[in-house]
Amino acid sequence: MQIHALPLFKTLRFKLIFGLLIIVIPIVIFMIYNNLYAIKVVRNQVAQSNKNLISLYMGQIDRNLDEVDKYLFNFAAQDMGLLVLDAQRDQNADRYSFTKIQLNNKLLKDLPNYKSMDMFFVYSEPNQDLLTVMSDQVSYTRQVAVENSIKTIFQDQRDGSNQTSLREWFMLKLGDQYFLTRVIKYGNVYIGAWADASKLMVPLNLVDLGNNGRALLVTDLFEAMSNQAFVQENQINLNDVGTDYKLTGKNEKFLVVGEKSAKGRFSLIAVIPDSIILENLPLLRRMVSFILMGSLILLPFVLFLLRKIILIPINRIMMAMRRIEDGNLDVRITYSPSVIEFDKMNQSFNRMISQIQELKINVLEEQLNHQKAELKHLQLQINPHFFMNSLNIIYNLAQVKDFTLIQEMVLCLVEYFRFMFRSNMAFVALSDEVQHTLNYFRIQEMRFPKNLTYDLSVPDNLMDVVVPPLVIQTFVENTIKHAVSMDKQIHIGITIEATQDKKVKIRVEDTGKGFPENVLAQLQMEMDIGNGEGHHIGIWNVQRRLRLLYQDQAQITFSNGAGHGAVIEILIPFHEKERGEVYASIAGRG
Question: What count of Cα atoms within 13 Å lies in the side-chain half-sphere of residue 445?
């Protein structure tokens, strides 16, 4: 079992959170859209309603101004006294004065009929004389200021410095107040009307625009004629208020709708707080907003519960599986309060790991017993092969009746077979293996007295090292079998030394022809090159035994030397323990 790190998008944590978001996000987006759409609809309805109201009042103001226009035009067309004012006063001063009195009386009589107006005036340009009729509500100070302002308009008009159009109602500003003014020219006489702009707003004061709502008259330069401090404080933009509404304001938003006058260069505008508009939302829309905010608040809590109830228990199981993958079968999932399903899963997991641990122990014991049996079988395969060769040597010595060599041969065989009877053990001391190999060399010298030479070099401090039996003698035997003959002399050299990485290096080389290319390739790939006639079975036995005893800690290489002889190098771990302990420690790793 292998557990690899999964990509983030394949993890259960990602899929649960992603699935939750896939459900929640569209709902939240729909609710946000629905809420915004509802707000827009309400704003449109409120804007349209107030737009209609402003249009109604603007129409009423325009009708009042139109009545004043009709009066001024009729007065100019019907009253013959204006002709007198059009002439120089010096020509008939008495008539001029009498006509002026008549005009004053007539205007004074007609002024109460037009409640929105504060003054009628007549200005004679030839005489630079101004006649004014004021309402009782206008103070003397205001009257003087207005008269001076009107004279200034006509003076500037005559000089050409004032480009104000006299064809429609226009705004006249005195101090911080605005006044609506209308002038009609008849010959060289001007007749006009004047009114305080705030009087036009009196009917609009009855309209409910909220606590902070305002109705404003605005000049053609988008300057508020009243409530200037309110407009500046809230930074309300009054520019370009047309048929549609707009939201403006710094801290608090205001909905602004307006209507331009058809009679003059001014507009009527309603400024409504957006908070008042949203208070008029239906209860369902406010519930949507509440649900939306509640969902956003509850989402982290839901994710926390999801992590605590599902993700943490699963992560605990994953961590245990990773540790088991590393070979630690003692890992158990500790009990932690959770849902019943995870409790049952954890208990089953712990029982399963306990059973696997017991099963692995049983398998290892069976594998160890099998390796022991296989090792004994492999060692027994070597004995008959050498036994046949030994009998053949004794037979040859008996033919020549060399009883001295026969006796020595028998003693060598006794030592040889005494060692072989001990070789059912997995390990022997290197000193015993070296002595056995020298004894074998002596037996082969008797067979090839002139064609076999050898040398064996081993440091004294390595004599107590334990090695598998017959690991040296097998390769010596293989060399003698395939390289030594009666026609050619062969030398076998054996070198044993310790490496820096705490291993024992055994090198066996000869001066023969070396390994054939096909055999060398098979040996390097650790292929079984034994055949029915027993050729190379000893080499394969050594390879197999080293693999069984050391797994990947031992190494054996085959090559041909520069002189075309065979070279075998064996690296095995350095051990100086008792043979039984060594075998138990090495085989136990399986």
Answer: 15
